[in-house]
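hey m, so remember when u said the tokens were messed up on ur end? i reran from scratch. heres the input so u can diff it against urs
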Amino acid sequence: TTAIIATWPADPRRRTTDDWVLLRRHLPAGTDNVTIRNRTRQIASFAARHGRLPDGFTELETPPTIPAQVLLAAADRQLVRVGRLDEVRARVWVQLPTVPAPASYRDWAWHDITVTLPPTVGPDTKLCTPTLRLRDGKVRLDLPFDTTVEAAPLAGHRRAIGADWGYNTLLTA
């Protein structure tokens, strides 16, 4: 972004050969054309709205929006406990602050959350530490779990398929 702003051409839609040489001299090694195109468009849009070039990258980008959530994966038993009540229900005990800036133990309280498990979570499945998210004024609990999968026999197969259930793509195979 700094290099593109520093070498801003007279017409950003039509860089001359000299414009490209100057820009490439200022860019970090390995910067691809797609990045140059996208940043140029972003800077041109900013300049059209504000009548000037931005001071830098931070002026181009809005602050990230992060959903309200409590990641408990790194918490120990002093803050969170997960256990089964029976084959279809689990209980999560989590200690959360009751004030924005807790200063003492009195500023924390235990919360007891009972969760009904979906049918895909078997009775022998190990429950893991959850994440709490706030959505539409309600607390949502993401409860991961570990399932033991038996290893496939090493012989007798001619084909295999690998699948990954991801965050951005539902299923990649």
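this time it looks ok to me. The mean pLDDT is 88. if urs says something different then somethings off w ur setup not the seq
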